[in-house]
Every structure is written in structure tokens, then in C-alpha cells.
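Fold this: DNA repair protein RecN
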Amino acid sequence: MLTNLSIKNYALIDHLNVKFTNGFTVITGETGAGKSILLGGLSLVLGKRADLSSLREKEDKCIVEAEFEISKYGLEAFFQENDLDYEAKTIIRREILPSGKSRAFINDSPVTLDILSQLGDQLIDVHSQHQTLRLADNDFQLKVIDALSDNGQVLSTYSSKLLLYQATQKELQKLVDFQNSATKEHEYNSFLLQELNSAPLKEGILEELEEQYEQLNNVEIILEQLSHGQQLLNDEQIGLVNLLTELKQVSSKLASFGHQYSDINERIKSVFIELDDISNELNILNDKVEADPQMLEQVNAKLQLLYDLLKKHKVQTIPELLEIRNALDGKVSATENVVADIDRKKKELHQLEIALNTEASNISKRRKAVIPKLKKQLEETLTDLGMASATFKIEIAPSKEFKPTGKDDLSFLFSANKGSAYGDLKKVASGGELSRIMLTIKAILARYEQLPTMMFDEIDTGVSGEISNKMGDIMKDMSNTMQIFSITHLPQVAAKGVHHFKVYKEEELMGTNTKMKRLASEERVVELAEMLGGKTLSDSALAHARQLLD
């Protein structure tokens, strides 16, 4: 419930701070005193949009702060989801800066306007003329029926399955779209993949083939140079091997004359061993090298194939070709498997549809079962409110499609007078009748679900006398289980309040200021008497006011 409201620098309000408690609170005041300003300030802190014109002093910021007792609201999950500190006494604050920027806070944590609005909707239900128009909204009408049906849990289960069903539908459509587009490209992709698979693709292959091609293409030069190398090494007179052999004999004789000679001897031995090994290697290479035109042609063909593929796919390296091949392989495989995937997804969707229809049917049965009860409660209460001939025609028919609230088409028709045709509420009911119907519905809802603090803004407009008395009784009964506010011009309703606040204006040096105060017993008598007979208080008006309070 709302326990405190503070408003600074808003419209005609300089600074207002009011404490509230549970039960039925009425707010009265003359036309233009600022009751709408009070509601405007409250709407700000509940997340409604604001503009600079709402600032009283344009150079100062506007601050609206409200404290709520929320321990019975079950909002812990909301706070956790939005990473907010949960407090049983929660404070929400809204600031409008002179620059036009707006800031919002929940328990001193900055939040977006959307989050503030989401929380505000769960804390206070402000009933205004605009909300009365929701009576004709099927979603609102179904909410009333579902409250009586205790459909909360089954609707939650249905919603979870509907989300899964819709996600599966999207997945199926995605597969179908992929099949339609992929079929056109499948043959081309398959050709490209086959072409790449026929090529000897592996990392390093290009360099390997280029080296092999150079060797096969230059056999004569290689043999000539190998032969010349062997001659330089092994010629009997000038061959390096023979000359080094003589040098090794010389160093061997010197080795015994000191370590510097022995070191040189060892080094010459090493050079001899290495040179002898090179000579043997050249002999082996010479034996291996031979002209092979056929092999040269094969290597050249492979190289040309690789060069052509690199050019065709506009890449520079073999690893890039390998990536393209893998991607094509994935596309071709996906296209070939998509038919099976579509069949599997269709079966999955069919099973979900069966489950959804079962849930929707259960929801529909529960709704149909309570419609007679709702119709009776509405008509009986409206009879007390001066609408004895009011009747409702509420019917549910199966819908062809799954909706967020089930698979029902709701017809919620109204007739205000005996013999009159049934029609849509907003078309056949007057403003006063709509207000009474909405009050009745809210009263019924209060019996079946935990509603937030409710504020009725002149819901009694267009009614008077005994009917207003009954409306006051209904709101007072609702206040036994929830906090109720009523902004009213009717003394009969005001007299029903457990707490009575008056909104009034005072002219001060700095201008007109809207204020609000809680009325004591005698002040209530005077306020009601003025509402009954005007500013000139008569004994009869005072007596009538006391009678209303008794």
C-alpha cells in the first residue's frame, strides 16, 4: 500500500508531504483546487511521461517520491530480475530536471522509465475515465473471467507451451525458406565441391608441386651440374678429395708436435669426412635424376588445376581453398538433410499443437463454467446501483488460432434496458453506466485476486443519491482487503471514507499553492456540509453531514 507521498515543485504544488494508511481514503476539494495535479504527480512517480511545463519553478528540479509497503505483493522476483534491492518498504522517486531530462530511482538505484512503469502498474491501479474504456477490451474482459476461473496456473502453462510452439514455427519456416533458396544453388554448390574434392588439396602441396616441377623441367641442367661437381671432387689430379687426402697426411704428421697442430689435424679430418660425404651424396643424386616427360606433364597439370582454382575462387593460398571446400561441404550436406529436418520439425510442431489444444480446451471449459456466476454477480450488484434492467450476454466460441490468452473468441455484450438489443459496452452504455459497471467488475476482481492499491478518480460522476451511497459501500467493502482511494465530489461517497483528505489552494506571496490536509471529525462535518449546500453553512446541511457520517 501507499504509505507516503512527497511532491516538490510540481505545477501548483510547492512542497507537499502526505502520509497514508490502509482502508478507505477519500479525497475531496473544490473544482480547480488541484486534485488532478495530485494525480498527475502520482502518475509521474508511477512512470508516466512528463514535460517541462509541469515544473513550478523552471530553474529547480521537480521531485516526486512515494513510499510503499510491498511485503504482501510477491514482488521479490521482479526485483531480482531487474537487479534491484528488495525492501519491504520500497521508495520510488522521479526527478524532472530543468533541462527536461528525467531520472527514476527504485530504492535509490537508478532505473529506466520502462522498469519504473512496470513496477508502478503493480503498486497502484489508477482508475480514470480512460481506463473505463477498457471495459470493451476483450483482454480485460477475459482477465475478469480468468480471475473467477482461477486460471492463473493453467494460463502460465499454456503461455510456456505457446512460446515453444511459436519458436518451433519460426524454426520450421526458416528450414522451408532455406530449402527454397538452397535448391536453386544446390547443383552449383555440388559442382564446386566436386571440383575441389578432385583437386589434391592439402597444406604445402603447392610448394611441393612447384619444386617437383622445377626439378623435372630442368633435368639436363641438374645432371650437367652434378657431373661437374663430381669431377671437381674426384678428379685424379685436381679433385678436392685427392688434394684433401694429401693435406690430411701432412696434418697427421704435425699432430704430435703440440695441441695447436693436433687441433688443426682434427679440423681437417672433419672437413675430409664432410667432403667425402658430399661426394657420395652427389653420386646418389646423379643416379636418381632421369628425364620423365610423363611425370612432368602430370605435375604441370596438377599445378595448373590449383592455379585455376585459386583464380576462380579469388584467393591466394591453399588453406583458403580448404576453407571454401569445408563451407561448400556444409551447405551441400545441409541442403541434402533439410527434407529430413523439415519432416522432423513438422512432427514436433504437431505434437506441440496437440498439447496446446489440450491446454486451451481446459482454459475454455473453466471459463465457460464461471460465466453464469459472473453474469449473476454483475447483474445483482448493478441492480443495487440503480441498473435493475441491466443484463449481460457473455459467450465463448472457439478461435481458429492460438492467442496469448488461449483459443477463445469472447463476446461480452450488454443491454441497459429491458427489451433493448445487446451491444458492445462502449456503444450502448452511458458514461455513468460504464463507471458503475467498472466499479462492479473491480469489486468482483478484488474477491478473487490480490489487487494493488486502487485509486478511483471521480468514478461516481453522473450518479447521485442512493446510488452514490451504494457505490461508496462497495468501495468501503473493497477496502477490507486492500487500500482504496476515491477522489469524489459526492458527499455520500466522501462520508464512507475511514480517512478524509481535502485538497485546497492558498494564495501566498510567491503565488497560488495547492495543499492537502487530513480532516479531523468536525472538519469532515464542515466539508460534507459545504459539499451538500455550498459555502454558506446551514443547520440542515450540518445535520445532514453528521447523519451521513453516522
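The chain has 18 helices and 15 strands. Residues 1-128+450-519 form a domain with the Rossmann fold fold (CATH 3.40.50.300).
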